[in-house]
């Protein structure tokens, strides 16, 4: 910290958030916050959304598009079947991650 007033400013902000309390010149931590928890979230208006939701939504859309284009070009060949299946499995994995992230998200 460059000066005392800056330190006081940050302490007053933490006090306002209810993260610590000050009694008789002594500071005591009330609640500890993990800062890395919000790293995988995006704020959409007032909602925190895990990044993996966007990936989970993208993969099935891309798989449907790929399947439609591959069906036009290759009809029903094994080569045209596997990429959408793999993308579908990736989507399932991202939905699993998104649900776990939502469960671990801090309450607003």
Structure description:
With 108 residues, this protein is α+β, with helices and mostly antiparallel strands. It contains 3 helices and 4 strands. It folds into 2 domains: 1-33, no CATH class; 35-108.
Quick summary of this structure?
The longest helix has 27 residues, at 78-104. The chain has 3 helices and 4 strands; from the N terminus they run αββββαα. The protein has 2 domains: 1-33, no CATH class; 35-108.
**What is the distance, rounded to the nearest whole angstrom, between the alpha carbons of the first and last residues?**
29 Å
What's the number of domains? 2
**In which order are the strands of the major sheet placed?**
1-2
Q: pLDDT below 50 for ≥5 consecutive residues: which ranges? A: none
**Estimated structural class:** alpha+beta
Assembly status: single chain
Helix amount = 55-70%
Shape: rod-shaped
Determine the strand fraction and express it as a percent band.
Answer: 5-15%
Please give the largest β-sheet. Answer: 2 strands, antiparallel
Which H/E pattern describes the elements?
HEEEEHH
- Radius of gyration over all CA atoms, rounded: 24 Å
The tally of beta strands, per DSSP, is 4
Averaged pLDDT, please?
81
Total number of helices: 3
Name the descriptors:
108 residues; alpha+beta; 3 helices; two-stranded antiparallel ribbon; single chain; 2 domains
Topology:
Layout: H1 4-16, E1 20-23, E2 26-29, E3 41-44, E4 47-50, H2 51-74, H3 78-104
Antiparallel strand pairs: 1-2, 3-4
Helix pairs in contact: 2-3
